């Protein structure tokens, strides 16, 4: 398959032109797959009502069929077609955080969507992305758009169109290149299906922000405790891993430098994931800077690009600094833990 790539230089509100977006929207209407930018990561979209279209997403990504997809909408009126809002708090969150990096799990109306979207569950995960290209594309497609992250399953999510090209060129119908995404980690997934609000996946909207809006929110124990099964089917899979094994180090820069030298003495090529504040402290085969530790949102924004960049270095091992688990640091540490296969070195 020849994958069409359109470039859209869109900042702020979009004008009514952008024929590229109309062409991409027509492919979605024809039940083809199109990758597009959101404020979090690139998504791989398809018509959520059509099973053939949705099947193409699973096929292109190599995604396990028990892992349901997030449905993206451009307008709150679209929601009623396929989901029920049975919680006052869910309403409050939509008003407060949409469009934005928050996904809400709601009861799904029977027969309204392809059952492959929900992987047979009676709930559906929904979000309204805060990106002018995504919103315009969904609007012009005129259908709810199912979209997981546009990476091959197991790889870090794409934060640039070139990541999508790397993973999916030739396997999908089109890519809308709208430049790098901003938030860098995926949306926060919240469920109300057990009565109380539970975070199934930490992401762009923080626990603290949610609690300011609706009071106490729990975090699914399945994502912090390795022995428990996560409530979101997708959270049980390994993910984000670079080709070389990676370990998170809870220790000082001196500790990390010592580890690097130890491993190098054994003949290994060693990389390190650090931040602007500490980068100068390391001598390694690859030193990659991921934002600033005093602004965790910059770490989130650069994380996946840095994880992917290690694959070009022919490394045998990677050490990553550890980050505080507060604010968006929770999402950063959750993704790093998965990239590390839960390997943590405490010095
Ligand atoms: O930021 C994002 O959310 C990106 C962009 C493209 O919007 N999308 C994304 O989708 O990260 P994906 O498919 O990579 O992750 C969706 C997560 C998975 O962990 C999945 O298991 C969970 O949401 N999920 C989907 N539907 C669910 C449901 N009905 N109940 C519980 N978890 C659900
Ligand atoms: Mg994903």
What is the arithmetic mean of pLDDT? 95
CATH class of the largest domain: Alpha Beta
Radius of gyration: 20 Å
Helix/strand order, N-terminal first: EHEEHEHHEEHEHEEEHEEHEEHEHE
Q: Uncertain runs with pLDDT below 50, 5 residues or more?
A: none
Strand element count: 16
The biggest beta sheet reads: 11 strands, mixed
Spatial order of the strands in the main sheet?
1-8-2-3-7-4-6-5-9-10-11
Q: How many domains make up the 3D coordinates?
A: 2
Quickly give the structural class. Answer: alpha/beta
CATH superfamily name of the largest domain?
A: DHBP synthase
Distance between the termini: 50 Å
Question: What does this protein structure show overall?
Answer:
With 347 residues, this protein is of the alpha/beta class. It folds into two domains: 4-235, DHBP synthase (Alpha-Beta Complex); 246-346, Threonylcarbamoyl-AMP synthase, C-terminal domain (Rossmann fold), CATH 3.40.50.11030. It is built from ten helices and 16 strands. The protein has helices at residues 19-29, 51-61, 76-79, 88-97, 132-141, 161-168, 207-214, 253-265, 296-309, 329-339, and strands at 4-7, 34-36, 43-47, 70-72, 102-107, 123-127, 145-146, 174-177, 188-191, 198-201, 218-219, 246-250, 270-274, 286-289, 317-321, 344-346. The protein has an eleven-stranded mixed beta sheet, sandwiched between helices. The chain has a five-stranded parallel beta sheet with strand order 14-13-15-12-16, with helices on both faces. Strand 10 (198-201), helix 7 and strand 11 form a beta-alpha-beta unit. Helix 1 (19-29) crosses helix 5. The relative contact order is 0.15. The structure holds threonylcarbamoyladenylate and magnesium ion (MG). Threonylcarbamoyladenylate binds next to strand 5, strand 6 and strand 10. Keywords: ATP-binding, Cytoplasm, Nucleotide-binding, Nucleotidyltransferase, Transferase, tRNA processing. Its EC number is 2.7.7.87. L-threonine binds at residues 40, 72, 127, 147, 187. One of its GO terms (molecular function) is double-stranded RNA binding. It holds the Pfam family Sua5_C.
